[in-house]
Amino acid sequence: MFERFTEDARRAVFYGNEEASRSGASCIEAEHLLLGILRSCQPEFLASLHLTQIESMLRSRLPSQPRPTATRNLALSNQNKRILAYAAEEAVRLNSSEIDSRHLLLGVLREPSSVAATVLHSQDLNLSKVRELLGNLGASRVDDRALPHRSRSRVQKRVWLIYLRGVVVQFAPVILLGLLLAKSPIAGQHLLLIGGIWLALALIWMVKAKGSFAWSYDKLNRSFALVISYLMLSLYQVFVFGWIAAFGVGIYRVIRP
Q1: Which residue, among 205, 216, 190, 210, has the nearest Cα to 238 in the 3D structure?
Q2: What digits encode the pLDDT tens for the residues 237-252?
Q3: Claim to verify: residue 188 and residue 95 sit in the same structural domain
Q4: Whose CA is closest to 49, among 107, 139, 119, 129?
Q5: How many domains does the chain have?
Q6: 165 inside domain
Q7: Is 9 found in the same domain as 83?
Q8: How far apart are CA 89 and CA 78, in angstroms?
């Protein structure tokens, strides 16, 4: 999805990571992303939505934590993952092939349980109002000249293909685990027991650790850090969703011994 991000949207995520790291958070939350959006947007756009004074209000809602010595590469929270998906949908709605910071702002508003959305709502900014304002600013014509022949359906199809590709990549380790369990001699009842214990551990970890890994790559080579990131993501998927494979194979063997 990030290949569709404009420069200001990429800066918003980068600044969001910086804000989260500065506050000592374990992952990038919606409020950190909103601070990144405020830092990356054009002043004219912020003024049109009366967002120029919202930064101090948002910072007052953040917990006071000790400032770390270096910026860390943090994972996105589950809220932010949904916000990015919402932003992609809003880009399609506005006939844009790219995702910019304005679409990210709409994504934040579509996650009403977040601190960021609460602050925006306190300033009388809701989803329909911001959509209307963006339409008046010409957001629906962001890239009409660049892509005069691209229809809305083609853009929407591309978004779905990118989404499905990401799903396949993320769940590939779980699928591989399922194939390995299918070839193993473990009895179905034992697999169900393993799956239950696995699920309980995953839930405990997601509650206690807020469902994310937090690593610092400041002293690592960039390419090496990228490889480690993919390995951590694969381990994350197996740990959180591996019980599905154990349950699936276990139920199949119980039903058809």
Answers
A1: 205
A2: 677 778 888 888 888 8
A3: no
A4: 129
A5: 2
A6: no
A7: yes
A8: 17
pTM: 0.52
What are the tens digits of pLDDT across the range 127-144?
Answer: 888 888 776 665 444 444
| Percent of the chain's residues with pLDDT above 70 | 69
pLDDT at 101 (0 to 100): 87
* Dihedral (Cα; 44, 45, 49, 55), 10-degree rounding: -90
3-state helix, strand, coil split of the chain in percent (to 5) is 70, 5, 30
Do 123 and 180 sit in the same domain of this protein?
A: no
The region, left, alpha or beta by phi > 0 then psi within -120 to 50, assigned to residue 91 is alpha
- Mean per-residue pLDDT over the chain, rounded: 75
Write out the residue range of the structural domain in which residue 26 sits. 2-141
Buried b (16+ CB within 10 A) or exposed e, 138-151: ebeebbeeeeeeee
